[in-house]
Amino acid sequence: MLSTLSLLACAGAAAGAGAPPQIPKIPGKWSHVELNVVIKRVPHTLIVDRGKITQITTTSLTLHENTGVNEVIPLTGTTIVTVDGSPASVSSLRRRMTATTLRVDGGAAVRVRATV
Fold it and tell me: C-alpha distances in angstroms, 114 versus 19, 31, 41, 43, 77?
């Protein structure tokens, strides 16, 4: 199963020149996943977190994960945000939204996918 997930992540990275990978579809109930993948012959760790937004600023969001952990996720001006499948901005994110984030190699989130 993990090999399938890593292939999905690599495919997302290769889809657009310089575009960050897509958030991989991960089955089941989870809150934090780390995937080691190779993209263009370079090893990377994709970090995916999911939970309810409890705090949001222009530079970070805090997710309350189903394990009871509060994870602070850094954001940048280049973080790609979608809300209910539509392009959005960090300022569109609100407390109590469910969000999934993707970070690469421990950096700031490259993608945030939120639902109301």
Answer: 19, 14, 31, 28, 17
| Position 59, amino acid | T
Whole-number Å distance between alpha carbons of 41 and 92: 36
Q: Give residue 96's identity as a one-letter amino acid code.
A: R
Q: What is the pLDDT of residue 18?
A: 78
The residue-averaged pLDDT of 39-49 equals: 94
Tokens read off for 67? 């394990």
Residues 58 and 79: beta-carbon distance below 8 Å: no
Q: What is the DSSP string of the chain?
A: -HHHHHHHHHHHHHHSTTPPPPPPP--SS-SEEEEEEEETTEEEEEEEEEEEEEEE-SSEEEEE-TTS-EEEEE--TT-EEEETTEEE-GGG--TT-EEEEEEETT-SEEEEEEE-
